Amino acid sequence: MTKLDQLADLGQAIWLDFIRRSLITSGELQSLVDEGLRGMTSNPTIFDKAIADSDDYDPALEQLVAEGSSVDETYEALAFDDIQRATDVLRPVYDRTAGLDGYVSLEVNPHLAHDTEGTIAEARRFFAAVGRPNLMIKVPATPAGIPAITTLIGEGINVNITLIFSLEHYKAVTEAYIAGLERRAASGGDLSTVASVASFFVSRIDTAVDRALDEVQALHPDSPLPASLKGKIAIASAKAAYARFQEIFSGTRWERLAAQGARVQRPLWASTSTKNPAYPDTMYVDTLIGPHTVNTLPPDTLEAFRDHGQVGLTIEEGLGESLAQLAQLGQGAGVDLKAVTEKLQDDGVAAFARSFDSLLASIQEKAERMGGDR
Q1: Which of 7, 60, 336, 369 has the largest CB neighbor count within 10 A?
Q2: Strand stretches in 119-217, DSSP E
Q3: Number of Cβ within a 10 Å radius of residue 143
Q4: How far is residue 92's CA from residue 1's CA, in Å, rounded to a whole number?
Q5: What is the pLDDT of residues 169-203, one digit of tens each?
C-alpha cells in the first residue's frame, strides 16, 4: 500500500497542484493515479509556466494560429484540452468514489475576482465548454466571489474556492456553500451531484507572519515570544479552520441537507510547499492529516512526501496549543493576523492576475514567432 493509499484510508485525498500536457500524454499522470493520486488543481501561474516554459503546446498553438484564433481563444483552447485530458484520466477515480474525488480544477480569469456577475458567467461558460462532471471551477474567496459561490452551487456547478487565508474567509465560504445547497434543494435539484472544496492557503501565512514577527523581534530583542511563534501560525490557523469545519458541518441545518444527499465541503490545504528552507519540506503535509480533507501538493512536495513523509492522524493534535498561539500572536506579539491575511488575499489575486497576463503575453509572443499576429 502506498502512502497516498494510506492517507486515503485516513480520509485525506492527495491532489496534484500542477498540470502540463506532457504529464498527461506521457502516462505519468496515470501512474500517479495508480499510486493513489485522487485529483488535480491548476491556476494561472501553473499554466503560464507550462505553456511558456515548454514546447508541449507548440503543435496545437501553431494550428490555432493558422486558424486565426485570438490570444484569449488560444489560451482557452489549450487549457480546456489539458483539463479535458486530465479529467478523463481521473474519471475512474470519480466513478469509484461516487463523486467524492477525481476532480480537476480550472480557475476563472483572476481579473474577475471583484466582479460577481462576470465570475458567474465565466464559470458557467467554462463548465459547459469542458463538459466533464469531474471539473471544479476555481473561484476566489473575495467579497465579490462569495455570492458567486452560492449561485454556482445552486446551479450544480462544482466549485473550488481559492485564496482562503483566515477563519473569517473560511466562515464566509462555508456559509456560501450551504446557502447554495439550500437554494438548490428549494428548486428541486439533486444535492448529491455537486461538490466543493475550500482551499485554505498555508505556507504564505507563515511567510508573511514570520516577517512581521521579525519586525517585532527587532523592536523587542529581549522578548522570546516572536521567535517561539515563527513557523507556527499557518498550521495553527489550519487546525482552527478544521475545528470550525467540524462545527459547521453538523447540527440540524447541515443534517437536513445531508439527508438529501449533500456532501460536506472539504477543507483543502493549498500552498503546501515550504518557502523557508529552514522548515521541513513536508511540514504542511505531515501535520494536517485528517478525515474529510484534501491536500494539493506541487510535484516537489509530493515527491518529498512519498520519500519521507509521515502518515498519521494529526489534524486535531495540539488544537489547544494552536489556539493559544493564535491568541499570543495578537495579544502578546501585537501582530494583526486579520490585516495580514487580508493583504495576503489581495496580493494573491494580484499575483494570479499578473501570471494570467504573462501567460497571454507568452502565447502572443509564440504566435508571432509562428507567423501569426493575434
Answers
A1: 7
A2: 135-140, 159-164, 196-201
A3: 12
A4: 19
A5: 999 999 999 999 999 999 999 999 999 999 999 99
Tell me, what's the pLDDT at 374? 46
Please choose, from the candidates 126, 127, 181, 111, the residue with its C-alpha nearest in 3D space to the C-alpha of residue 349: 111
- C-alpha span between 114 and 125 (Å, rounded): 18
Grid cell 487546525 is found at: 239
φ/ψ of residue 61, rounded to 5: -65, -40
> What whole-number distance in Å separates Cα of residue 30 and Cα of residue 37?
9
| Rounded distance between C-alpha atoms, residue 157 and residue 133, angstroms | 9
Could you tell me the three cell numbers for 150?
Answer: 452560492
What number of other Cβ atoms are within 10 A of residue 221's Cβ?
Answer: 8
Parts of the chain with a pLDDT under 50: 374
Q: Write out the catalytic residue numbers.
A: 138
Asked if 66 and 374 touch (Cβ cutoff 8 Å), the reply is no
What's 263's DSSP letter? P
Please tell me the distance from the alpha carbon of residue 300 to that of residue 306, in angstroms, as a whole number: 10
Q: Is the distance from CB of 41 to CB of 270 less than 8 angstroms?
A: yes
